[in-house]
Amino acid sequence: MANRGHSPSDWPPKIVACAGAVVLQGGRALLVRQAPGHPLAGQWSIPWGIIEPDEPPEVAAVRETREESGVVAEVEGLLGIQNLNQPGWIAIIFLCRHTGGIPVPDGGIETDQAAYFSLEEMVALDELLEPWCEWLVRRVLLGECRIIPPVSDNPYQPRLAFF
Q1: Which pLDDT tens digit goes with each residue over 12-57?
Q2: Three-class SS of residue 8?
Q3: Farthest-apart Cα atoms in the chain, separation
Q4: Residue 142 sits in which domain range?
């Protein structure tokens, strides 16, 4: 790609990349309720957050899950990429499986509740579900999505590739 006259400090254009996880245990998905002070305060969502510099997205998804819910998860594959409502923001979402821990909030820093929900329990929930997270988790629980598994035979090992 040509530089087109931009200085190195502003090229390439910057975006904010977030990583999130739909973590499954049995037929249920992990949700966290965002704490007061968070932009999504009071809403249930998947665990997610901004990817740290030099952090692979799949590592960020697992880290955010552990930080926000106390759950240890392992990536099974890439679910997809979502352009978020905030211009210049994207979310990279992974399907994960529960490997340890029990859902507990982070003490009100970002989350004030954490739990696994079946589709029926989500429908019956008398609290706000963040609309995109609800749509995403519903698709996963209904089997209406495909995952792209990680492949380890790529030339940039040990970094994962999803094809």
Answers
A1: 668 999 999 999 999 999 999 999 999 899 999 999 999 999 999 9
A2: helix
A3: 55
A4: 13-155
